[in-house]
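Risk register update: the risk of archive-format incompatibility is retired. Evidence:
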Amino acid sequence: MLFGRAKETFRFEKKDACAVLTRYSGRQESVCMPDEYEGLPVAEIGDNAFYDCAHMQTLTLPQSLKRIGTGAFRGCAALICVNVPDAVREIGDYAFASCKSLEEIRLPAGLPKISAGTFEKCRALTRIKLPDTVTEVGDGAFAQCASLCAADMGSGVKQIAENAFKGAGAQLKLILPEGYEGAVPEGFDMLYKRVESGLCLAAYAGHEVRLALDDAVDGEDVTEIGPRVFAMFAYLESVRLPARLVRIDELAFAGCSGIEELTFPESLKFIDRGAFSGCGQSEGRPSYARVRRGDMTSASGLKAIRLPAGLESVGEGAFSGCYALEEAAFEGADTYIAQSAFSGCGLKRIKLPAHGTELQSDVLRGCTELEALTLPDTLESIWERALEGCTALKTLILPESVQLIAENALSACTSLTELRIPKNVRYIGDGALSYLFDLKRLSVDAENARFSLQNGLLVDTEEARVISANLSVPNEFIVPYGIKIIGAYAFAGAKYEKLTLPESTSEIREFAFAGANLKELIIKSRTLTAAQNILADVEEVDVDASEEVLSKIFGDEEE
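Archived output:
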């Protein structure tokens, strides 16, 4: 008799050679659905079939099941876990909504979609992993799942409704597949995307001022921090990076002026373009983070960094504008440092990679606190403006390996007192040694076949080009015969009042005499090419030259 009563709690209908459960009316805590009804396999649970079955805690479903209808288990408040059979291909809207005790559910591998409201208000659900076959997640599918802390969307999802996670757990970590291009839903704290190396943190929606990033999520390592994730988070005071981090993408922490300490993990290989640019506040403007703490001192931002041995590259402008950054040390011998990487920093000390062959363009430009710099013995090229404006730099020894000093490379190193051009240098660009006002001793290795000193001028003998001049010569200077080219910035900032160029001069390049103290310029050559800005910022100079030369210097202006 008891067996008969149990059977009566399940009501079935026949449909297309299968059985459909239309209603369960029992009050058992543990429910096991039958596999068959009158010899027909149970293939479907109808709409609202278990609606508001408040006593059911565990449920065993038949392996023949293919469909779970709309609201089928809605309001089953005591249901703790469900294992959905592999044959199921459809779960209807709100099928498990308001199952407030549901902690765990296993979804079938072939499921194509998570319908609207399927798990709405499942407040005990902490984790969900979707099968790779799911391509769509509907409206409110996980809305108000207040305990949900990790949601893995599998590898096949193409579309997620904007409100799919509305009101979900405040610490929700949402994992999207690699290459996901659909709309990003609301309601997450951390958004991750799969990449080849693991997980990439793609977005952060929290407001923590001290943040410890995950080493892993559901067993998968966090290996990247994506582009602009924390850009302009000026209130952020500290960040602990993931232990197995491989890459920090472009502009990831740009403008985070409140971060003053940072430890890079040994696993790190790439710091991309602008990753930490502007992580410092200029003097007189304390960072937002310091103002919030009531600390009004002016220096703020990263103070010192150690870059691990395994680091392969630092991208363009990676630490540019880190005004408070006083020290940087590269532990690796072969790390590539891109252009502008440390431009505008407050560096006082930097340990460069031991095997570096190039100082890229603008790499230390405007580091006005840098007093000494040790260059690697393997250095071959110093590119455009690499050390321009390092106004505190007093000593610089160029290693014998140097072959190229590009345009404006050492320009405005105004405290530099001594410089020797090594024997292997084959190219020195215009302006490379301009505005070196304190340079007392300039020498060229006797074995250097390309460059020489002539009357205090550094000359490229192959081109007969003046690269730089002794700026402190008093009163008058006469350029020796044989010089053909006055290079750009060659006499910029010169102190003497009178300068004479010989008949051999055939070209005067841009800003050649910019900011000089010239009162009289004598050009003996009758014909030459000259840029019209050669006398930029020079006041009341008298130019003695042929009409043709004057017209090239001043254009249509009358002398």
